[in-house]
Design goal:
The chain has 331 residues and is an alpha/beta fold. The chain has one domain (3-7, 33-328): Ribonuclease Z/Hydroxyacylglutathione hydrolase-like (Metallo-beta-lactamase, Chain A). Helices cover 31% and strands 22% of the residues. The strands form 2 sheets. An 8-stranded mixed beta sheet has the order 6-5-4-3-2-1-14-15. Strand 2 and strand 3 form a beta hairpin. It is globular and about 65 Å long.
């Protein structure tokens, strides 16, 4: 195949199209798209073909935000039609592997397909995410040899230039900021407040997030048991996405309950916070069963007066005027 033909085929690929899409802007006449939240992964560290590791895609205007990116969450994201090059911000609640294993895939695919034509990924999370990033993508990092080959070998340079890149190629350089409770990060049409989760401190710093957009508000607890901090962070939110790990009354220890909560605890949090919709996620297989699902939702509704949603991978919630106007299942 001649070089001209090779370049044409690569340039016509989905990757090249996605890169161009990253820089496109909506015309002033187009109405603003409603904010959507897609549940990419609603599972646990346990292996599952039904539920990916924790991951959420939030689309506000023309910005696409990832909250956590556990194992197989990236695959789920691709199933939505969104690619790594489309993501502008990535937030991590904590560094348990079921919340961050696909971080490397997100960074490397975004860098590889982006061909130096898109801005660096903005990454936010608790310590030691800066050290983790260096250990993954630094010169002596886990992917250091891979990155060097893609920068220096002519075959990789050919692909890079065919995608529109101009040598010499830059290294992947996500812009990492370590965050703590009380911090506020602002995007074009949204702001995100960082709160404290109650999970496995002091071994890992654990955070929760509240995102406010023009048409609604979202609180994602990461992994957390019941706490006053979560109640305050979620106060008045339209959607609360909360870990619902196990059946109330079956915790093996008080420490387990404090770290993970349960469905009756979640009902109290949602009711005290006055949220409109409670989305249950991080679901163990033993409760993800007919009859148990219905019993859990029924018992939550004895305490909580809002809407209860049993989360599923690829479920999409659409905001409209500070309500969840639509819930679509991915299956």
């Amino acid at each position: 195949m001649k070089r001209r033909s090779f370049i044409g085929k690569v340039a016509a690929s989905g990757a090249a199209t996605a890169v161009l899409g990253q820089t496109a802007t909506a015309s002033p006449q187009e109405p603003r798209k409603p904010t959507t939240v897609t549940l990419l992964g609603t599972g646990t560290p346990a292996p599952s073909l039904k539920r990916a590791g924790s991951g959420y895609l939030v689309e506000v205007g023309d910005e696409r935000i990832i909250m956590d990116h556990g194992p197989d969450a990236h695959h789920r994201m691709l199933q939505t039609g969104v690619k790594a090059v489309d993501i502008s911000h990535a937030f991590f609640t904590h560094l348990h592997y079921d919340h961050c294993m696909d971080y490397a895939r997100l960074v490397l695919q975004r860098w590889d397909q982006g061909a130096d034509l898109i801005p660096d990924l903005l990454v936010y999370g608790p310590p030691p995410i800066t050290r983790m990033t260096e250990q993954l993508f630094g010169t002596d990092g886990v992917y250091g040899p891979d990155i060097r080959a893609r920068i220096e070998h002519q075959s990789s340079i050919d692909v890079f230039t065919a995608r529109g890149g101009k040598a010499p190629r830059k290294r992947p350089a996500p812009r990492v900021q370590e965050i703590k409770p009380g911090d506020v990060i602002k995007g074009k049409d949204w702001s995100l407040k960082v709160g404290k989760a109650t999970h496995v401190q002091p071994y890992l710093e654990c955070l929760a997030f509240r995102l406010d957009a023009p048409d609604g508000s979202l609180c994602y607890t990461g992994d957390s048991g019941m706490s006053d901090e979560i109640v305050e962070l979620a106060r008045g939110c339209d959607v609360l996405i909360h870990m619902n790990h196990y059946f109330s009354g079956t915790a093996p220890s008080p420490a387990y309950r404090a770290a993970c909560g349960n469905h009756k605890d979640n009902a109290q949090v949602a009711q005290r916070a006055g949220v409109k919709t409670l989305v249950l996620t991080h679901l163990l297989a033993q409760i993800d069963q007919p009859r148990l699902r219905e019993q859990i939702v029924h018992e939550i509704q004895q305490v909580y007066s809002g809407k209860v949603v049993w989360g599923e991978d690829l479920m999409q919630l659409t905001f409209k005027g500070a309500v969840v106007a639509n819930i679509e299942s991915g299956y």
